[in-house]
Every structure is written in C-alpha cells, then in structure tokens.
Specification:
Layout: E1 21-24, E2 32-36, H1 47-65, E3 70-75, E4 82-88, H2 94-111, E5 118-122, E6 125-130, E7 144-149, H3 157-177, E8 183-189, E9 199-206, H4 212-223, H5 226-229, E10 236-240, E11 243-248, E12 259-261
Protein name: Gnk2-homologous domain-containing protein
Pfam family, one: Stress-antifung
Signal peptide: 1-30
Length: 286
C-alpha cells in the first residue's frame, strides 16, 4: 500500500501554492489524491449541492460513452453554477471509466467537505468541479501534483535520467499528434544497462480537446521538471488538469505500448539535462 507524507516546501516555492509530494511505493493500485479549494464553501441542501448532484448523474455517463473518455459540463446559474470536467485514462474501458468518475463525485465531497472547488485524481481517471470556469482547453488551470517512487535506481543516474527523458519526450510527441485521444504509451529497452529491469514504461495524456501544439506545449512545460523532482527515481508522475505523464520500471497500463524505443548503447554519453526552470504551479492536499 502506498505511503503518503507531506513534502517540505522548498524556499523557492514560498510564494506558490503548497507543494504536495506523495511518496509512492509500487504498485499504485487504488491510489487516490485530492486537492480542495479553500476560498469558498457551500451549505448542506443548497442549490449548489443540488447542482453537483445533477452533474454526478450525467457526467459519468457522458465520459464513459465518449470516444475519447472525456466530458465537461456546467449546471445552474450564478452564483450557484457548477463547472465540471472528467477525463479517463486512454486505456480504460467504458465501464471502468464511468465507475471511476462516479466515485470521484462521492469521494470529492467526502475528502473536500462542502468545498465548492474539488479535484480528485485516480489511476484510471480524474474529476474536478468548481464554481469558477476552468473549462478552457487553451488557458485552463494546470496546477499539478508531483508524485514519485521512493526507490532509487541502482544504475548510473545520468544514464537512467537520459533514458526517461527520451522516452517521455517521444511519447509526448506521439500523444500530441494522436488527434483522436491525445494519449500515448511507450516502452524503452534498458536491458543493456539493467538486466534486472530491462524496460522503462511511460504514459502521457492531454485533454482530448487540446490542439496538437497546445498539448505538446503543455507537456513540454512539465517534462522540464523531470531533473528537478525525479532524478534517480525508479518512477514518477505529474498529474495536471490539462496534461500529465508517468513513468515506471514496471508495466502499469493495460494495453500494449503504442511506441517502442530501443535500448541505449552501452557507453553512450547521456543527453544533456534541460536548463534550470521555474518550478511548476503546484497544488496541495492532505
């Protein structure tokens, strides 16, 4: 079972929202993370709560019946309007997608009681509802959760980090040009470096309504944080509302990889690390 701890907030994030670093032990079955808004609450049996309930009956069906497993909607009028978005992972089936989004509405109201703004992430899907309109695909909120595996690699760190960067970038290119789903999975041979763990697996996804350029730009922003948060880590992920990715040294998605990369040559010099960048806007949770 995964263990969760609050990460210490670095000094350079003092002006940003609180940072959540969830330390994860594989496998990540039934994992769940939430982010609760702190600026506005609703009351029990209010119109706002009724609007959430109305969305909870329609959005799971809309997402699960969508070819891209994606749905967004709004219900009500100001000041009780509720905006909501749900996206299931590209390898989820319709039934699992609908169940995941339905559970999201239940869990969000338990984990973020009476908060008008709540986000819940799972392995198969994520859900957000809010009184603020965040539904734009071009400039919507992409505050992120940063999560990583507590186990370090046992091979040269620079070689491993370079392999991860190559895999995630290649998978991001695939996802951005996949016009139907903005979803990609990949695997990279690593047996020339680590015979005990001969492959690295990656998954990348954007909102399906994003353009290829917007998707790739969003991914480029969060990929630059690999050396900042994941150096030498066996696995890690960044979860965002607009785009996200994950990598591990074990298979964690259900379908065959859409992209295969060869193993690096023994003795090959690693690619240079990206330049230092400003840390991402991150959201907190308990």
């Amino acid at each position: 079972m995964a263990s969760h701890h609050r990460g210490r907030i670095p000094s350079y994030l003092a002006t940003a929202t609180a940072l959540l670093l969830a330390f994860l032990l594989p496998p990540l079955a039934a994992s769940q993370w939430q982010s609760c808004g702190k600026n506005s609450n609703f009351t029990q049996n209010s119109t706002y709560q009724a609007n959430i309930q109305a969305l909870s009956t329609t959005l799971p069906k809309n997402a699960s019946s969508s070819r891209t497993l994606f749905a967004l909607a709004s219900v009500g009028t100001v000041p009780d309007i509720v905006y909501a978005l749900a996206l299931c992972r590209g390898d989820a089936n319709a039934s699992a997608c609908g169940d995941c989004v339905s559970n999201g509405f239940k869990d969000a109201q338990q984990l973020c009681p009476y908060s008008k703004d709540a986000t819940v992430y799972y392995d198969p899907c994520y859900l957000r509802f809010s009184n603020q309109n965040f539904l734009s695909s071009t400039n919507g909120d992409n505050s992120v959760l940063v999560l990583y595996n507590t186990q370090n690699v046992t091979v040269p760190v620079k070689v491993f980090d370079a392999a991860v960067g190559m895999l995630i970038n290649a998978t991001a290119d695939y996802a951005a040009t996949n016009s139907s789903r903005r979803f990609g999975t990949g695997e990279e041979g690593f047996e020339t470096i680590d015979k005990a763990k001969p492959k690295i697996y990656g998954l990348v996804q954007c909102r399906p309504d994003m353009s290829p350029a917007d998707c790739r730009s969003c991914l480029a922003d969060i990929i630059t944080y690999i050396p900042q948060y994941f150096t030498g880590r066996q696995g890690g992920r960044i979860l965002g509302l607009r785009c996200n990715y994950r990598y591990e040294q074990y298979p964690f998605f259900t379908e065959p990889s859409l992209l295969q990369l060869p193993a690096p040559s023994v003795g090959a010099a690693p690619s240079p690390a990206p330049a230092n960048v400003t840390p991402p806007p991150v959201v907190g949770g308990e």
